[in-house]
User: Fold this.
Amino acid sequence: MGVGAATVRFRNLVQKGPAEHRCRRTFKTTSAGDEPKNELEVHEQPREQQGCRCFEEMRRKVKQPPQKFPDYLEEDGKLYRHIAHRACNEEVASWKMCIPIGQRQRVMTENHDMPTAARYYWPGMHRGVRKYVRNCECCMMYKPSQLQAAGKMLTQVPEEPWATVCADFVGPLPRSKHGNSMLLVLVDRFSKWTEIVPMRRATTETMRKAVRERIVARYGVPKVMITDNNVQLTIRAFRKFLEELGVRHQLTAPYTPQENPTERANRTVKTMIAQFTGADQRTWDEHWPELQLAVNTSVAETTGYSPAFITQGREPRLPNALFDEKTTGTGKCTQTPVENAEKLKEIFELVRRNMEKAVQDQARHYNLRRRPWKPKVRDTVWAKEHHLSKAAEGFAAKLAPRFDGPYMIKKFTSPVICVLEHKTSKKEKTAHISDLKPGSAGAGGPGDFEE
Assistant:
């Protein structure tokens, strides 16, 4: 028997034709009149493809005349379509079985949940596959998102000094000779003035004392205080303390340090402490007053002025400075209080303009790595997990689920921060939209695969 007359039978396909067009591994080669004996071969009745108008119409077209539709083939009552592999790989099946609506859910389970090859076709198949995969909890939990992080940078410029105060803890550090092991950093968002407060422990009481003595007693009560989600800053006692002062407490989303402006000041402070500490790290709190003076008398690139000049309207004298040694008096013309007030107003306006320009430049660079995405309330999402490896318990973060869910978006506390509610446990959590990926509302059924 010649090669051209051979009938090659496949696991899910019977194909007649030259051997060079056969793309799947054969299970048995027989003559054209032989019947297949492998129970895995498909010989289903034509009625199983009934209900798909497009397939019924194509079946009629293929029968008369078949030359006009070379990409379709009817064999044993089953309809197949030829879809060539994009890389012309002859090892990949090019004839795909056309699947009716009633069997598409089974095909999804067979090819997604089990290690089998792709060999099917129906109109809108890629759309149906995407929807099915989005409903697979295993995929949503373990597979990383391939998209850029969501959430554009929010641009907000404070109006005046000490209207918005940011706070953050640094530590734990080596216990110093004074018994301190934590460092509290308070920053005025407008002037960039920084307060450094060494502490023995980071507690709510020490935080309240620092705010009263370092901020309220010297500069007045701020309108807004921005902090992260440390336990000392989120418990009821501290929230009540801020409510009594009339301060609005604004929390950043977990694992998003870029939302707290104090992080930039922390880097400067930690670098300076490391430089002055040297080998004996127990002396890290010995020079904090001089370090605070140095930070507050340095010109900030964002504002164009030093924090001390914006806050006090003058530059403080520095220890043993050559300028004061050689200059008699202040070296400035005497001005009346009215003139000083007008000058400060002009400086504040310049600072606002400089900060707006700096924020726009920062946002332009930041948004290059971000995509615009705004989920809606009641949308289904999955939240990113942040595991820590525990060798003693045999737990590796690399093998842990990357996402948890499904969650429903309950509300937004800012354009990029939302409160989530777990659909099963009803547990609530706060997350930045960069830690979310969209999920489907429910599992796919037969109706999800209709044309």
